[in-house]
Amino acid sequence: MKISIIIPAYNAEKQIRKCVLSALQQDIPHNEYEIIVINDGSTDQTAGIIQELSREYPTIKSITTTNQGVSAARNLGMDIAQGEIILFADADDYFCTNSIAKIYEAILKNDLDILLFDYNHWGNQNKLLKGFDYDARKFCPRGIVSGKSFIKTGYMPAAVWMLAYRREYMLKMNFKFINIRHEDEEFIPRVFYFAEKIMHLPLICYNYVQNESSFMQNYKEYGLFDKIKAMDNLNQFTQKYVKEEDVAFTLSEHISLRLMENLNNSFAIKSKAQGKMVKQMKKAGLTPLVHTKREGRYAFLYKYFPVLFIAYYRHKYLKRHHSK
User: Fold this and answer.
1) pLDDT digit string (tens) for 246-296?
2) Which of 33, 146, 244, 256 could anchor a disulfide with 290, C-beta 3.0 to 4.6 Å?
3) Where in the numbering of this chain does the Glycosyltransferase 2-like domain appear (predicted)?
4) Any residues with CB less than 8 A from the CB of 198 and at least 6 apart, and which?
């Protein structure tokens, strides 16, 4: 089996068919890969659609579980996957036609642990957005590098579907997702750190569709606190395993940036939980924040004047919001 594609789905009746069919529209014989679709306790017609597709296409494995969250679904998918290469997809998104064979060939040809590829970012009204979509082309190292060298560039992919993984490597290191929102943001640095060979493929292989309801779910108050938990987990990993000072510092910068971004997002959803967030960060040992190149003055402000730090971020958000 060449490839395993893992697709968690929860109440995705409007999108799941397009996602799964895109994984079938590839120039690979259907008996050489598998599509593992995990219905995570959906209450709509998702389960029926997946079962219908699996009856028509033997490549599709349909699994239904109680609702446990996307992390548990991905972990289950990894446990049963048989392919040499693992890919993830979200049910809202879809693959580019005839792209997966190129991913597989690049990994085998270069004997990679991880391959990063490009994607399209689609917004409302089917509008193609630009911005962080092409960060990989700007900041990724060229050629094959170790995971540690990649981390030191300061660029960190934000989603697991941006990457393809050699299953042998994932099994050897026993990588698992923690069961919270923003799990990708602490999972990817861990996976990168131990990788011996990572490469960027400058080819658009995936279409990310920004789903407004999913976006807002991530930034409800519990999502904000889950992000702090994710960064706490990554911080503990860094302290326990990362021995190289420059790599550890870069990961600390990454954690600081994500936490300040998290605070900024709290104002976007009109949350008043900033005080609790700062307390949780302090309790988890995530402060003082590292003085990053991009956000150094904010980290300094937090370190010495946390009340002013919150007030500044509130003012910054409101000023930007009213200027639009």
Assistant:
1) 999 999 989 988 888 888 777 766 667 788 888 899 899 987 777 555 555
2) 256
3) 4-119
4) 112, 113, 114, 115, 116, 144, 145, 146, 147, 150, 192
